[in-house]
Amino acid sequence: MLICRCHVRISSTGQPVNIPACYNIRRFMNKAAFYDLDGTLLSCNLVTTHAYYARNERNMLKGAYQFAKVLFSVPGLFVTDLYSRSHFNVVSYAAYGGMHRDRLVGLADDLFEVTLKPSIFPGAQDLVNLTRNLGYRNVLVTGTPDFTLRPIALHFGIEEVICNYLEFKDHIATGHMHKPVLAADQKAVAIREYAAREGIDLRQSCAFSDSSADVPMLTAVGNPVATNPTWRLRRIALRNNWPILELRETPSKLPPFLRAAKVL
Amino acid sequence: MKSLGNWRWNPVKGRYEDTLPSPPQGTGEISAIDAFANKTILLLGGTGFVGKVLLALVLDRFPELKHLVVQVRRKKNVSGEERFYSEVLQSPPLQAIVDRMGGEGVVREKVQVVEGDLDQPLCGISADDREKLKGKVDIVVNLAGVVDFDPPVNESFQTNVYGVKHLIELVELLDAKLVHVSTSYVAGKKDGRIPEDTPIVGYFPMRDAHDGKQFSVDDEIHWYEQFVEETRATRASNARPVRERLREGGMNRADDWGWTNTYTYTKSIGEQLIARTPGLTYAIVRPAIVESSLRFPFPGWNEGFTTSAPLVLMGGGGLKGWPVRSDGPLEIIPVDLVASGILIVTAAVLCGKNKRVYHLASADKNPIMLPRLVAFLGMNSRYKHKHKTSGNRLANWWRAYVETQVITVKLLESRRQRLHRGLDVIHATLTLGKTIFGDGKVGRHLNRRLKSLRDTRRQLRQQEVTLDKFLPFMIHNSFIFETDNIREAAGMLTNEDLKRVQWDPETIDWADYWVNIHTKGIEKWIRPMFMK
Question: Could you tell me where the DSSP H helices lie in chain A?
């Protein structure tokens, strides 16, 4: 089975990088740093993203209706998240249903500026730079769909992403993800396949995540790091002797649902 | 369970697909690599937008080529050679390629610069240079032309008609083949699918409507000479500037025959001159609206104001009502695909397997409909003005949150009238106030307001003129140019060739292209020039 992977253009309008095409520098890099996104590098989740799209509907009345729908769905989503992250993903992606892809792509930069950029943890960029300088190939492994991910990856300078893809029918989102949806176990499967294809030594690689849902991904690599861990992951990390990293200035005691509400 | 494959967007079907993109396959009937090996190309117009990308592409992809002779026009005190090495090679699309090739020294071995000017007989190439080139040049690629839509008719004729005459003389003298770059819009005021096999000689857009009427290039040249002479002779008796009258004369003549503007009219005459020359081996390449590069030399490279740049800048400036056809596509094509297309055609001509006309366009396989573009322009305006801290807050809010609309020409006209009436009222009030308050503090303040009102009016008028220029492509006509010939030519190449040059507009993800490549390219490369 192949994994999904896309190369995000880093210098989409900038000067070309002066490296001859035949020099594949990545060939010599046999270790990778896998990053989860939400809660690990920034504190924003799907709810805030949906709220943004609802607020920026073409039609203001429809926007208000959509916004109300997102607000009412929050408690339900919170309970679902506690039960299972993959169920949470499935339910929350339904909010994309009926949206035209042009709008999702066209508003991605604005979404990033408004909701995502302010919520990046202070130490996140340094961490990404550090792993790159240490010779790791930085890879984002996240459930966030590709169009939202693009400006984030550009911001951090991460060239490789393993992410989810929304299902579209004639440019209109159906509200489903292409299967298998990247969450929990699937992340570990995707990492293993990526490593096999790219010649990555997983024992030398590291992974960063905040959630206990990503334990399969963390255990797939030799050096897992619990980053801004939830209480559940903190317990697992302490038991397994994994390092714990805090990128937030003041660790939030709030559950993810309330953290999202704060950004709203 | 479906595998998580290499997902890619299929723009034609409007969905993601997890099939690996199969590498393009060619029949191998012609080989571009063999065709270019030990050959010499003479390139005219290599300093322009398409020219630079073509130059970069041929240097980067076909090292087999023996020589590339580039004709560059002298500019005042700067010689052609100096211009080439200081202007062209230092330009962003070529810089990286030159570095990759190993510096300017390597380029000097491969490229020969000759000074010349299309407006002069034999393209202004000196007798010495002509002797050196004789028998050595295998093919001439001409990209030079006046691309302004409505210049004074003499400027357009000089390069697009007489220039082509000089070009034909040169090609015959050198005993070479010819690839001439024209425009798809020579089709004129037409609707629907435009085929590539329409006879070139004697073509005029209204031929179907006027059965008896004949179009002849000689008659047009005769008309032109007479018209210019008459216009200049009446300089003293007519109060209007000659330049304006020449501009208007060209547009009217074009309109009489059914062309959209002087540019397409003169380009069509140029094509007809080539087509009627006996014994000439030629191919005419007709690109649609050429836009920012998709991949090569890097995504988003753009230059000059001849593309849709004014529209994108106006959209970014907050224009909300767009008079476009909701059922029509905008025929755009990235510049690197145009350069690839020209190289494919050049290879086909060198192998003797070419057709006469090649459209380079996107809409017959992967159209981008105009209402989608209008929505993109709105989203760009939202992004730009939402985060703006300077300027009037209310105006910024309006530009950010009011969505762009598709409107009719009638509505556009009435909106314009209303706006001008409103501005008239404000103007009258301010003038009245100035008269009452005189030169005091209030009067001076009103004077400043009047001045800024005049600036606003000038900007509005400019905006209106620009928008009107684009109306033929957006609302009056709806073109879809058939591109079977270039597809066939690309299909004849070998697989090795297809790794170097591709013709694949059907894979363009328009949303990504317009939002992340084209708009950002214009903001980066065009806006600074525009602001200057």
Answer: 46-55, 60-83, 85-93, 101-106, 108-111, 124-133, 146-156, 185-198, 215-220, 231-240, 256-263
Q: What is the DSSP letter of B408?
A: -
Residue A16 has pLDDT above 50, yes or no: no
pTM of the model: 0.89
Cα–Cα dist B518/A36, whole Å: 31
Sign of CA dihedral B135, B137, B139, B143: negative
Measured in angstroms, the CA of A241 and the nearest CA of chain B are apart by 33
Q: Is the preceding peptide bond at B205 cis, omega within 30 degrees of 0?
A: no
Q: Determine the distance from the C-alpha atom of residue A239 to the mean position of all C-alpha atoms in its chain, rounded to a whole number.
A: 26
| Chain B CB within 8 Å of residue A174 CB | no
Residue of B nearest to A12 (CA): B299
> Is B369 in the A-facing interface, judged by CB distances under 8 Å?
no
Contact assignment for B517 to A1 by CB distance below 8 Å:
no
The closest CB to that of B1, out of A101, A165, A179, belongs to: A179
Residue type, B444: R
pLDDT of residue A28: 60
Measured CA distances, B496 to B23, B65, B199, B288, B519 (Å): 11, 16, 34, 27, 33
How far is it, in rounded angstroms, from Cα B201 to Cα B280? 14
DSSP type of residue A119: G
Is the ipTM here above 0.90? no
- How far out from the chain centre does Cα A198 lie? 21
B288 and B481 Cβ atoms separated by less than 8 Å: yes
